Amino acid sequence: MKSRVVLPGGTIGILGGGQLGRMMALAARTLGFQVKALDPDATCPALSVVDECITASFADEGAAEKLARGSDTVTLEIEKVALSTLEAVARHAPMRPGADVLRVVQHRGRQKGWLAQGGFPLGPWREAHSAAELAEAIGALGGRCFVKSSEGGYDGRGQVEVTSSADAPTAWQELGERSVVVEAALDLQSELSVLVARSPRGETAVYPPAYNHHEERILAWSLLPGPLPEKVSARATEVARAITEALQVEGLLVVEMFLLRDGSLLVNELAPRPHNSFHSTEVACLTSQFEQAVRAACNLPLGSVEVVRPAAIVNLLGDLWLKEGGPRFEDVLAMPGVRLHLYGKRDARKGRKMGHLSAVGSTPEDALARVKAAATALGV
């Protein structure tokens, strides 16, 4: 079962029906696959594009087994899936990526420890399991730190910036009084990410690094290929490929990294799924990250990662929908080289990703200028 090839016409199961699951499902349909999903939200974005959507918790082993029994292979679009659920799936269908990968990735402390043990470059960090340990860690790391919940949290949630040990009690309480990872603040020059696809047969394909810009800890815009020095791109690719091989990933792995002003390249976090910073692959590359995820999950030959034209994306958050009159999409649809991507979410909330704009250009900088102009016209 581990090396099973699933050909077009087969059925793919997806754990998660958010926007990433929706876009994977659309790519799978283009290749001729049937698609099923499981998600706790009965109105999830994937609902309208899959053949069946099972509404159940990510800890519901029975529901996961039902998904697996009706699928030829199963993949995921979110890390917050119980390990027992992944193991339940694997009893009935190939689970790609599997529980061994998620066991490392979904707990920040365990992830950092695994990376450190493997000799991969990290910034200074510590774990804390109480307010007192947190205060001690903040002091040891120099005062200004980012404190992150060991599990869960994304898009700026589940983390707090502190400036001294005196902030420890408030941070501990704000993060739910549970295990945390403490990271020393770094002198950043830029942020980047590398996407590696790896099939069960051991074939790998690596996309060029993306250059990312965050605002309030949420990705605001991203460029592909990132305008980075050749040595930095080569080193980032080398590190990402090595991590993927060490984890024996079957599927996708995104390695988020920091480039420091002194030239150091450090690993930030891992994501074993499609990633916001590679949405531009839909318009930039011969094979999008979503089609690549499908190919890897099915043990099919991986597609070309060639960038045929530089591209950039800007995220569209729920704040835009909350403005009077809402977004005027016709304004951006008239712009050459710009595309609109909406996720089908029903409830707009501040900070919630509702869609994104993409644009292509003759250079990454040209693509970024176009997509920023479109975002401005939309009211971002």
How would you describe this structure in keywords?
single chain; 380 residues; alpha+beta; Rossmann fold; Dna Ligase, domain 1; D-amino Acid Aminotransferase, Chain A, domain 1; nine-stranded antiparallel beta sheet; four-stranded parallel beta sheet; 13 helices; 31% helix; 5-(carboxyamino)imidazole ribonucleotide synthase activity
Task: Describe what you observe in this structure.
Keywords: ATP-binding, Ligase, Lyase, Nucleotide-binding, Purine biosynthesis. Residues 112-298 form the ATP-grasp domain. With 380 residues, the protein is of the alpha+beta class. It contains 13 helices and 17 strands. It has helices at 19-30, 61-69, 83-90, 99-105, 108-117, 131-140, 168-174, 230-247, 281-284, 289-297, 319-322, 329-333, 364-378, and strands spanning 11-15, 34-39, 52-55, 73-76, 125-128, 145-149, 159-162, 180-184, 188-198, 204-206, 210-215, 218-224, 251-260, 265-271, 311-317, 338-342, 353-360. Strands 9, 10, 11, 12, 13, 14, 15, 16 and 17 form a 9-stranded antiparallel sheet that branches. Strands 3-2-1-4 form a 4-stranded parallel sheet, sandwiched between helices. Strands 5-8-6-7 form a 4-stranded antiparallel sheet, sandwiched between helices. Strand 9 (188-198) and strand 10 form a beta hairpin.
